[in-house]
Write a structure and sequence with these properties.
By secondary structure, the chain is α/β, with parallel strands linked by helices. It is 48% helix and 17% strand. The chain has helices spanning 17-28, 35-48, 56-63, 93-96, 99-103, 106-119, 132-136, 150-163, 171-187, 209-224; strands at residues 6-11, 31-34, 68-73, 76-81, 84-85, 125-129, 142-147, 200-203. Helix 1 (17-28) packs across helix 10 (209-224) and helix 2 (35-48) crosses helix 6.
Length: 227
């Protein structure tokens, strides 16, 4: 029986998983682990080093040269790739366009899942991703599955990219990227994006960040007395 509390948040791209996860972690004083950032950092390394995702030996070798770490600053979780801060670069379009293919790779997923499970072995954590409640922490006490209207998700992502000065041409480009990632995430052989049977659905199409946080806190509250 798990003694530490694990909150697993899964869902589609640009549904605000990390926004909710960060808010919950801050409110509960839990550790926030962004699993998606881990796959994005690996993707960035593969892009920089021209790693052939279809070459198992090349992937195995690359993974041996990747060290990922999280650190907190200003209530935000930052990720380093081999000591380099890459939190901003991994959110740009070149990584977004390749992360689904990299994260679908069996060798990559096995390596990342092992790292994630170690991180959540004994501490109270909030982790968001695609397969946290179904593969990484099947025994998580609280599981959320987040969704939202695809058009709303694309608009949110487009505004986020523009605010960061990323060179995005059109809203349609972002919409197509999300549609591609949804298809790749839900149809991949290795740990596809599916809702765990015991996951609570959270559709945030028409609610605010404050309202979704209140909703999540109500669901978590009964478990706080047990830790």
């Amino acid at each position: 029986m798990r003694k530490n509390l694990v909150i697993a948040i899964d869902g589609y791209s640009s549904c605000g998983k990390s926004t909710l996860a960060k808010a919950l972690a801050k409110k509960l004083d839990f550790i926030y682990i962004d699993s998606g950032a881990m796959y994005r950092a690996v993707t960035l390394f593969f892009i920089r080093n021209k790693v052939d995702i279809n070459n198992d030996e090349a992937v195995k070798n690359a993974l041996q040269h990747i060290e990922l770490n999280f650190h907190a600053r200003d209530y935000e979780s930052h990720i380093t790739l081999n000591g380099e801060e890459v939190s901003e670069e991994i959110r740009q379009m070149p990584v977004s366009e390749n992360v689904s293919e990299v994260s679908a790779n069996k060798l990559v997923r096995h390596d990342m899942v092992k790292q994630q499970q170690r991180m959540g072995k004994s501490k109270n954590i909030v982790m968001d991703g695609r397969d946290i409640g179904t593969a990484v922490f099947e025994d998580a006490q609280v599981k959320f599955f987040m969704t939202a209207d695809p058009k709303i998700r694309a608009e949110r992502r487009y505004k986020e990219l523009l605010s960061k000065g990323d060179n995005v041409t059109t809203l349609e480009e972002v919409f197509e990227n999300l549609a591609h990632r949804d298809y790749a995430d839900t149809t991949r052989v290795e740990s596809p994006l599916i809702r765990a049977e015991d996951a609570i659905i959270l559709d945030n199409t028409d609610i605010t960040e404050e309202e979704q946080l209140d909703f999540a806190l109500e669901k978590v509250k009964p478990f706080l007395e047990k830790i």
